[in-house]
Amino acid sequence: MVVFYDPIYTDGIHKEARFPRDRYRLLAEHLASCPELELRRPEPISRDLLITAHDPEYVDRFLGGRLSEKEMRRIGLRPWTEAIVERTLRLTGGSVQALHEVVRTGGVSGNMAGGTHHAFYAEGSGYCVFNDLAIVALQALELPGIEQVLILDLDVHQGDGTATLFQHHPMVHTVSMHGAKNFPFRKQKSDWDIALPNGTGDEEYLNILAQVLEDLNSRHVQLLLYQAGVDPLEADHLGHLNLSRQGLDRRNRMVFDWAERQRIPVVIFMGGGYATPIERSVEAFVDLFTEAARRHARSRSRPEGTQPDEGDG
Q1: Staple 239 to which of 130, 194, 231, 304, CB 3.0 to 4.6 Å?
Q2: How many CB atoms lie within 10 A of CB 276?
Q3: Cα torsion for 111, 133, 146, 107, to the nearest 10°?
Q4: Tens digits of per-residue pLDDT, 111-127?
Q5: At a CB cut-off of 8 Å and minimum separation 6, what does 54 contact?
Q6: How far apart are CA 71 and CA 59, in angstroms?
Q7: Model pTM?
């Protein structure tokens, strides 16, 4: 399975920034020895693709280093480095290239970053400059055979930017399962929002997810964009939910099971993870990508036309 990664994902964030930048480097170190994974360096995204989802004037001001202090403060990641533009372009490019990889090969591909769901049409927010989920969804609809796209956002924070970008788009379905009392405190309207109370644990969470996935059977989509944030983890200091590492692993398996039954490819976006210590988030991301690699290998070896076993994995 191909996963897109560049050291600039870490190095492009300042050492003094509040964001846990080392999680990308640590995850890459863990996954480097996984024989089923190929880490591939992404190319920077083009301006033309950025403006399919974003205001050209906003895009140009970011690329030219002309955002206001207020705009930069809302995005976060400060103090900004000289590499912040290249980092953003490569990170967003990695998500688009993961789309093309999974369309070419089937199964699963992903970006070892991304899921930047707080970025709106003309402004960034919450560590998100551009919305790679939106860009990928719109790019996917330009490809043969993809008429409906599902964005399943299981980050603990609502995908507010994604919700607004697709509020009136009939071919992109947005589903966000998030903490009711967490950031963003002014929620937007996804096609389907599932707001969870603080302290929600494994069994309640997974029972709700099972019902969500069952109800999604009626959505005849050809691609799943999976925002797989691990910030519902009980050790996450920004999460306020109470999932165990095992519970998150079961969550991912349920999503992959559903995609296999629907016979649709999956693009993975990392999303949030802010545990204390950060190694707890890294461990959960390792589980995510190793399970994805196993599913991709299995999809490639399955004879054409056969279905996966119910509940396999």
Answers
A1: 231
A2: 12
A3: 20
A4: 999 999 999 999 999 99
A5: 119, 121, 122, 130, 131
A6: 12
A7: 0.95
